[in-house]
Amino acid sequence: MKASFLCVTNRAEQETGTIRSSVPMNKVLILAAFFFLGINFAQSQNFDVKTPLLGVEAPSFRAESTHGTMNFPADFGRNWKILFSHPKDFTPVCSSELLELAYQQEGFDRLGASIVVLSTDLLSQHRSWVAALEDIPYKDGKPVNISFPLVSDEQHRVSYMYGMIHSAESIGENIRAVFIIDPDNKVRAINYYPNEVGRNIDELKRTLIALQKTHKRKDIATPANWQPGDDFMVPILSSADRESIGTPGSLFYQWSWFMTFMRSE
Ligand code: BEZ
Question: Quick check: is 7 catalytic?
Fold first, then answer.
């Protein structure tokens, strides 16, 4: 028997002197090394694969971005935060999403919302992509200015922390995730989209506005297809407000005893 072979024998084989199976030692060593290195890599990265759920504190991280080192969410104070991940720089759908985000930047600024874009691409790649996007004649033929930061999550640390890696969908790249985080740094909305479907930035803004309204007034909610300016719903009504229904000047009206609306101010 060669020294480079690990022999797997049983008692009968030892007694009879026959050897039924053997595994090459070098293969065993290579597999063991891969296993050991894999565990060590995951441990050294301290991956937390928990996905934050609605209502929890947004996981904080420190990372390099096109605006320098970022401490998220602390750097954005009491602004609303939109954490927006994408699979890959220089891909067509991602490019269209960033152009539209930049085009609507002023609207997000007015709402007191900070946008942070994140992928596993290198920082140098982010910088080249931003420059290339800013060269494109967008709506009305005008180029956009990309003023939000792009985070480079090369080590996948943040991506795992926020549950943005869905290996069955794509290996080693983020899916299209959006986290809306309120001024108290609580996660208030989570959207996951597949690679093939570009996100609707109008819908993102609509959700943000609805969240801001319901954050201010905890007793209201927004019905299906609600748009800013539409009436709200009131899941729980005080008895005084209930009694006002049907009287002149009442703010409230009902479609049924279980569907009460409040006129928007
Ligand atoms: C895109 O952004 O175009 C894209 C990214 C990953 C897979 C497919 C499309």
Answer: no
